[in-house]
Amino acid sequence: MIFTEILLFTFAGFFLGIFTGLTPGIHVNTASFLLLPLINIFNPYLIATAIISMAITHTFFDFVPSILLGAPEADTALSILPGHQMLLERRGLEAIYLTIVGGIGSVFFILLLLPLFLFSIPFLYASTKLYIGWLLIGTTIFMLLVEKEKRKIIAATFLFLLSGALGVVMFSTPQMDTNTLLFPAFTGLFGISTLLLSLKNKTNIPSQNIYVEGVPMRTSLLGVVKGLVSGSVMGVLPALGSAQATVITQEITRKRDTKEFLVSMGAINTTVAIFSLISLYTISKPRSGAAVAVDKLIPLFGFNEMLLLVAVTLFSAGISSLLLARLARRFVIVIQKINYTKMTVLVMCFLVALVFILTGPYGWLLLLVSTAIGLIAPLFGVKRSTCMGVLMLPLIFFYMGIY
After folding, report:
1. How many other CB atoms sit within 10 Å of the CB of residue 288?
2. Of the chain's two ends, which shows fewer C-beta atoms within 10 Å, N or C?
């Protein structure tokens, strides 16, 4: 391999990451496995380079459709409400910038603390792998008790169990893989349900402020540190990832500071992506679809391979943050010129059509049920993060040996 080839495949992954990030329903894990057959044509190290570049770039750009359009994936679903609220407050550009700060901040701290992580991850994994089920139960109880009022705790428990039951049924159905199933589920729970409420309230996007002040240092540091801590833990432990880390961070911040929360979300997404790679080296356990693909491409994943892909990560994060910072203003300028009601209807039609194309009639049914469940949270006045029971309850059952 020569430097030019590595750079070429890094850029190829970069452009693929922009595509997967901006296109709802195209998950980076699925795209990673679609690249595997290229091993018959290209050096596996080059394909791995493209996959990691794509995965890192995706973590920056996938906030754009969730904040501006309300079209989520599992990793960005909980950013819809605070991000969309900032959009309605003329601060949509700032919301995107906050996620960029979180993403690039997490990369900086991970590289700075990389020797510590390489030493501590095997110990963390060995100490906790037998207690995942109990950790999830503790996280769930924490989520529910944060509501404080008895009425809301009961409502949140009901919503958690209802969304959890949907998850159990969903993952027990063999027709589709996990990534395909999550698209209609999260689109209903967090996307279309939010858009329907916007239509009901006759929401309009006000003229956006395209001049953003700098993010306060304290907000940036706290957001990055919280996202880094929760994202690193979830990036190491089995079956946990961005979605669960976001739930924990949301409850820690309690949404008192929307800016800090969005910084944390940006940090979580990128942290989980990077730590899935570090976990592959330290404990030989890939923690994401992209890392699994790399494991298949490079069975003997050693220190030199990790350094190569860490360098690719740094480069991809750098150019992703710079490009998104420039493009975000154009995205916001375009969005404010569009009639919000018409755009909302078009986005919902697009999502419904995309669900059918990708998942068929079963996906439509899943979308309908999840949308109905997603509307319960605002009806009872409880946090929409409770709907993450769709992932957490099946995981609790699995790790407690219930099914």
Report:
1. 23
2. C
- pLDDT exceeds cutoff 90 at 83: no
User: Where does residue 284 fall: left (phi above 0), alpha (psi -120 to 50 degrees), or beta otherwise?
Assistant: left
Residues 6+ apart with CB under 8 A from 153: 144, 145, 147
Q: Distances from the Cα of 82 to the Cαs of 260, 261, 262, 353, in angstroms?
A: 11, 8, 8, 26
Report pLDDT digits (tens) over 263-303: 888 888 888 888 888 888 888 877 677 887 888 888 888 88
- Could you tell me the residue ranges of all domains in the chain? 3-399
Higher model confidence: residue 322 or residue 2? Answer: 322
